[in-house]
Write a structure and sequence with these properties.
The protein is mainly alpha-helical. It has two domains: about 1-70; about 120-294, no CATH class. The protein has eleven helices and four strands; from the N terminus they run αααβααααβαβαααβ. It has helices at about 1-15, 30-105, 110-120, 145-155, 160-170, 175-185, 190-195, 215-230, 240-245, 260-265, 265-275; strands at about 145, 205-210, 235-240, 280-285. Strands 1-3-2-4 form a four-stranded mixed beta sheet. Helix 1 (about 1-15) packs antiparallel against helix 2 and helix 4 packs antiparallel against helix 8 (about 215-230). The longest helix has about 80 residues, at about 30-105. It is elongated, with a radius of gyration of 56 Å. The termini are far apart. The relative contact order is 0.10.
């Protein structure tokens, strides 16, 4: 546009001639008239061209400013949206963290309950120890038939018994030795039988020969049946090795006595001899284990 304006103004400044590219050949009069007319048209055209150029430039500038304004507004709006999104994200994260903290804080402490499940409380049938297997002779590590049943009843009330029962359908001495027998007598030096007779150790009258893999329910049933068939009272004192001996003595740091120290006392030989004048010995057979395979 500016180039066209310069050419037009240059044309107005020169004298028209036949060689002029902008004016056709003519006479001098015609040339003067044509020159005047051409100048007027050229001036008007140049003015119009300049006005158009200025208008276009102004419009372009206006559009550019408008676009810049729109872009600026768009950028500003975008920044506001980003800020709002960041604030929402921060609020959500804070709320989530608070919820997690609240949930964690509100959760009950089950550690004590878990310990109770893992470590059943000592039953009432086992009072505080008074005697020690290292001080009392083996033939006096007896317990009555009624006490035998009472102790098994306490074992049945624990989750350890229930778990073994559910696992294989029956419970043997291996199942309750570590989790119940040793747990309830640990660091006392006193086996189950001595714990159940704090007033006076009970001399054995009946030696029970059995195996650790037996079904304890069947063992109890067989023992009760034997007493019934032989008219023996439930107060009859039996010697049942798992409950007569002190079981946790071999554990590190335990007060003892150890199993080896108790075997040095020849408990089985001395008990068999002592029960000769009593009810002697009974061998218990169950369907889960063969006593002579022990």
């Amino acid at each position: 546009l500016w180039l066209e304006r310069d050419l037009l103004l240059q044309c107005l400044a020169c004298s028209p001639s036949r060689d002029c590219a902008f004016v056709p050949s003519c006479s001098e009069a015609e040339s003067a008239a044509a020159t005047a007319t051409t100048r007027a048209k050229a001036t008007a055209r140049a003015a119009a061209t300049i006005t158009t150029a200025i208008t276009i430039t102004a419009t372009a500038t206006s559009n550019s400013n408008s676009n810049n304004s729109i872009n600026s507004n768009s950028n500003s709006h975008s920044k506001q949206q980003q800020q709002q999104q960041q604030q929402q994200a921060t609020t959500t994260a804070t709320t989530t963290a608070t919820a997690v903290t609240t949930t964690t804080t509100a959760m009950p402490d089950c550690s004590s309950a878990a310990r109770d499940v893992e470590s059943p409380a000592v039953p009432q049938c086992l009072p505080a120890p008074r005697w020690s297997n290292s001080k009392v002779p083996p033939q006096c590590w007896g317990m009555s038939v009624a006490q035998f049943s009472e102790f098994l009843c306490s074992c049945r009330e624990t989750h350890i018994w229930a778990a073994a029962k559910e696992s294989k359908g029956y419970v043997n001495l291996y199942d309750i030795d570590a989790g119940l027998v040793k747990l309830w007598t640990r660091n006392t030096g006193s086996g189950v039988a001595l714990r159940m007779n704090p007033q006076k150790p009970l001399p054995a009258e009946l030696m029970v020969s059995h195996c650790w893999g037996e079904d304890l329910d069947q063992c109890e049933e067989a023992l009760l049946d034997f007493c019934g068939r032989h008219a023996l009272p439930l107060t009859r004192a039996v010697w049942f090795c798992a409950f007569a001996q002190y079981q946790p003595g071999d554990e590190p740091g335990d007060v003892g006595p150890t199993i080896a120290e108790q075997l040095q006392l020849d408990p089985f030989g001395s008990v068999i001899k002592s029960t000769k004048s009593g009810s002697g010995m009974v061998v218990v057979h169950t369907s889960c284990a063969k006593v002579y395979d022990r």
